[in-house]
Amino acid sequence: MEKFDIIVAGGGFAGAAAAIAAARCGQKVLLFDKSNCLGGAAVNCLVNPFMPYSTKVDGEFKSLSAGIFEEILNRLTSMRNLTGEMIYSDRKRIFSEEQLKLVLNEMALEAGVTLLFHAYLCDVIISDGKIQHLTVATKSGNIDLTADYYIDATGDADLAVRSGCSYHLGREADHLCQPMTLCFRVSNVDLEKFEQERSQIQTLYKEFKASGKIKNPREDVLIFHTIQKNVLHFNSTRVVKLNPVDPFDVTRAEVEAREQVLELYLFLKENFESMKNAELLSTAAEIGVRESRMIDGLHLLTGKELIDCSKFEDSIACGNYDIDIHNPEGSGTSHYYFPAGQYYEIPYRSLLPKEISNLLVAGRCISVDHEAQASIRIMPIVCCLGEAAGVAAAVAAKSNVVPANADITEIQRILTENGAVIH
Ligand SMILES: Cc1cc2nc3c(=O)[nH]c(=O)nc-3n(C[C@H](O)[C@H](O)[C@H](O)COP(=O)(O)OP(=O)(O)OC[C@H]3O[C@@H](n4cnc5c(N)ncnc54)[C@H](O)[C@@H]3O)c2cc1C
After folding, report:
1. Going by fewer Cβ within 10 Å, which terminus of the chain is more open, N or C?
2. Nearest CA, atom 27, ligand 1
3. Do 279 and 331 belong to one domain?
4. Is 158 a residue whose pLDDT tops 60?
5. Is 33 a domain residue?
6. Is the CB of 34 under 6 A from ligand 1?
7. Total domain count, the chain
8. In testing the pocket of ligand 1, which one of 8, 34, 351 has its CB within 8 Å of the most ligand atoms?
9. Is the CB of 361 under 6 A from ligand 1?
C-alpha cells in the first residue's frame, strides 16, 4: 500500500484548497473524490454564483476570502483571456463551472497532488484513536490508502463519522436540515423581455402557489444570470424534511425535486413571453445539500458568536455572509445581515474533531451549529477553511505532532504569507 503524508477525502472547494495548500507546503498528498472532477457542489450540483465575501471599510470593499480563493478567481479571469469567453463576472460573481474544473485540476497538478477520481469512501480502520488507513470503492474493486494525516472535506463529514467521531445533524430542536435543491438551467430565454417580466413572474408564482397550482414549498422563484447567452440559472426547487445523509431520503428528494423542475419550467414557459421558446437545458448531476452532519469539534462555533462578531486567537478564516436559513420545514427564508465593516472569525479548533487525533475537517461540515453553518457554508469561506486545514496538516506533519498540537502561530504565519485573511 503506497503511503502518503496527507489524504484528503472530497474535492469540493474545501478539499481542493486543502490538498493544494498542503502540497505547496511540501507534503505528499492524495485527494480522492467520488465524482470525475474537482469543485464539489459548484460543479456536481451546479451551484452558482459565489455569494458575497467582502465588507466595506472606510468606503472601500475589503475581501474577507482571499489566499487560494483569490488565486482561483485570478485564474478564472486568465482563462477568460485565453478563450476569449466571458467566463467570470466580477460584478455578479458568476463563473463557469467548466472553466473552474480546468483551473482546479491545473492548480492541484501543479502543486503535485495525486488525484483519484471515481473513488467512494467505504471503510476506515482506526487504532489508538488514529486513522490507520481507509478504503475506497473503485471500478476495479476496493483500494486501501494510508497516510499520517487525513482531512475530511466530504461536505457530510463521511470520513469523520465512519471513524467514530460524534456529530450533530441540522438544527438542535428537531435535527431538520436546510432544504435540498436541484439546480437547473433554462436556455433560449429572451433576456431583455425577462428583465421586464421579472416582477410579474414573482407575482404570478405567488398566485399559483396560493391556488395550489404550484406545489413547490419555496416562497418565490430564485433566478440568476449565467455566463452563457440567453441562459438562466434556477436555484429554486425545495425539498424539506428529508435527511440528506439517508440514501433513501436522498433518492426521494431527487425524484421530488425533478418534478418541481418540470412544474417550474412549464409555469415559466406557458405564462411568460420571455420564456415561450425556452428549453430545459440541464439539471445538476446531484441534488444540492446545504446542510447535513457537522462534527462536534474542540470548539462549537455558534450563530450567537457570529452575530457578536467574535474574534479568536486561533482564527484561521473570516466571514460576514448573512445567516441565510432556507426554512427546513417549508416556505420562507430568514436572514441576519452583518453591519458594514463587521465580520466574525473562525477558530482552528472548529476544524478538529474530539475523538480522532490525526484527522482535520474542512468545509461545510466543521464544528458549527445550524445558525453558524448557514453563514460559513458559502464557497468563498469553505475554500479558506480548506486552505487552513491543508496548511495546518502540513505544519503538524513537519513537527510530527497531532493537528491539535500544531503550532498555531506558524499556521497563521503561512496562511497570511500566502495572502489569506485571518484577522
Ligand atoms: C442548492 C445550493 C445552493 C447554494 N448556493 C450557493 C451560492 O449561490 N453561493 C455560494 O457561495 N454557496 C452556495 N451554496 C453553498 C456551497 O455551494 C456549499 O456549501 C459548498 O460548495 C460546500 O463545499 P465543500 O467543499 O464543503 O463540500 P462539497 O462542495 O459538497 O464537496 C464535497 C466533495 O466530496 C465528495 N464526496 C462526498 N462524499 C464522498 C465520499 N463518501 N467518498 C468520496 N467522495 C465524496 C463529493 O463528490 C464532493 O466533490 C449552495 C449550496 C446548495 C446546496
Report:
1. N
2. 155
3. no
4. yes
5. yes
6. yes
7. 2
8. 34
9. no
